[in-house]
Amino acid sequence: MSAEKDYPRDEEYYLTNVVLLVEGYLFSVPRYYFANKSEVFSDMFSLPPQQDTKLEGSCDASPLHLEGVSRIDFKGFLRALYPMQHIQGNPVLSKKEWVSALKLGSMWGFRDVRQLAIRVIEKADGFNAIDRVLLGKEFKVYRWLYSGYNDLATRAESISAADVGLLGLEKALQMFQLREEVVRKRAYREYELRDTRTKVEILQCANDALKEELEEVKAAEAAFDALPSVYNWADA
To answer: Cα–Cα distance between 152 and 129 in angstroms, integer?
Structure first.
């Protein structure tokens, strides 16, 4: 019986998988992007295994447990990272799945997934000012947060009870104050300066708390944009 040959592994196209445990379900996916394009996972993989135990993520019997992550969110993220249902164009995901991809892409530092999710979500039907404020603040997307505040402050209709329920009382009160300041500045411009332009820069009307929030989101977004790309050609 001949001995098994020890073939060399190609340094570029011999891909190994990592086994992940999410809400009691096993996932086996290519390790490369997780290990090389996310500092979070890179740090996880660099930890030495405990004595007399298999390396976490190396097999079904020893998966890497992702605590605090829902299976639904993880599948949305994987469908964006490893699309299987399209040949060209964006992966076919629901809006909820794209939000999941944005959530985990942001949490784990996958820049490409995050940026793709942002582009797709903002083109979705029904992506309104409240959505932009809530998602922009949570996931650090400055243009969503700014445009959401701008629309809420300048639109004809007032802040509704439904808006208050979504925004929360504190944020809704900030919007009421912002709307009042926009109206005041418009009136001053029209009657004192005889300036008929109705557009008012909301940063001139925002209180310190809103300005600070917007600046924090802008800084956090810049940090995300500085992360490495999953695909090398994206940085070219």
So the answer is: 7
DSSP calls for the chain:
-PPPP-PPPPTTT---EEEEEETTEEEEEEHHHHHHH-HHHHHHHHSPPPTTSPPTTSBTTBPEE-TT--HHHHHHHHHHHS--S-SSSS----HHHHHHHHHHHHHHT-HHHHHHHHHHHTTSTT--HHHHHHHHHHHT-HHHHHHHHHHHHHSSS---HHHHHHH-HHHHHHHHHHHHHHHHHHHHHHHTS--------GGGT--HHHHHHHHHHHHHHHHHHTSPPSSGGGG-
Structure tokens at 23: 């809400």
> For residue 184, how many other CB atoms are within 10 A of its CB?
12
| φ and ψ of 208, to 5 deg | -60, -35
Q: Which two tokens stand for residue 8?
A: 């060399």
Calculate the CA 6 to chain-centre distance. 44
- Per-residue pLDDT tens for 136-173? 999 999 999 999 999 999 888 999 999 999 999 999 99
Helix (H, G, I), strand (E, B) or coil at 77: helix
| Stated pTM of the model | 0.84
